UniProtKB/TrEMBL annotation:
It is a multi-pass membrane protein. This is GDT1 family protein. The keyword Transmembrane helix applies. PANTHER family: TRANSMEMBRANE PROTEIN 165, TRANSMEMBRANE PROTEIN HTP-1 RELATED. The keyword Cell inner membrane does not apply. The chain crosses the membrane at residues 33-54, 61-83, 134-157, 164-185, 191-210. It comes from the Bacteria. Belongs to the GDT1 family. Its main location: membrane. It is found in: Membrane. Pfam families: GDT1 (PF01169).
């Protein structure tokens, strides 16, 4: 019971204001809150199971910084994908991932190398004989923290135009992807020239993806 309570409280506190809570808030402005909550639950169960059972083993061979870099880059890609806006028009239900899988994949990626995943690994090490209570506790803690974010997102979603919601969610993804790269990359890689080039390329990608999304959202002559 101590392991369960400790894990739950630790994760609730760690998640307040964290990127995954903000993601829950952003997704709740776009999808049904039930869908978001289910996606968060599945992603958390899988990710924290990975952290408890496999994470500590993997980090003996693959540095956690590498995991963080891959997750951060994936997050930027997801932000660009959101800018294109397929999900907001409902097209994802026909030719791409459903809202449930969109939320699940996004949260799973967001948690890779995040402080709550690292905390789960640390808690599992602290309570080596209580892996299941730690797993359950961290999952419950995530659900409580993200339920708060989802509730706020539902309220905000009724008052904010869809275009602003889309760009707000996209910029959240990209911001935390950049932040993750900053934390994970060796400092010698962060020269002024490289950072400037990265920012220039990212801005160009945002511009072209947004333009692509606007063109694809225009009605075709057949549709008219």
């Amino acid at each position: 019971m101590e392991a369960f309570i400790t894990a739950s409280l630790f994760v609730v506190l760690a998640e307040m204001g964290d990127k995954t809570q903000l993601l829950g808030m952003a997704f709740a402005t776009r999808y049904r809150w039930q869908t978001v909550l289910c996606g968060v639950f599945v992603a958390t169960v899988l990710n924290h199971l990975f952290a408890v059972v496999v994470g500590s083993y993997i980090t003996n061979y693959v540095p956690m910084s590498t995991v963080q870099i891959i997750a951060s880059l994936s997050f930027i890609v997801f932000g660009l994908w959101t800018i294109r806006g397929d999900q907001l028009e409902g097209e994802d239900r026909e030719r791409s991932m459903s809202p449930f899988w969109t939320v699940t994949v996004a949260f799973f990626i967001a948690e890779m190398g995040d402080k709550t995943q690292l905390a789960t690994i640390a808690l599992a090490a602290k309570f080596p004989n209580e892996i299941v209570p730690v797993w359950m506790g961290t999952t419950i803690g995530m659900m409580i923290a993200n339920a708060i974010g989802i509730l706020i997102g539902v309220v905000l979603g009724k008052q904010i135009p869809e275009r602003i919601v889309k760009w707000g969610a996209s910029l959240i993804f990209i911001f935390f992807g950049i932040l993750g790269l900053y934390d994970a990359l060796p400092r010698e890689y962060l020269s002024v020239t490289r950072v400037s080039l990265f920012i220039a390329v990212l801005i160009a990608l945002i511009y072209f993806v947004a333009k692509w999304g606007n063109q694809s959202s225009k009605p075709t002559p057949e549709a008219e």
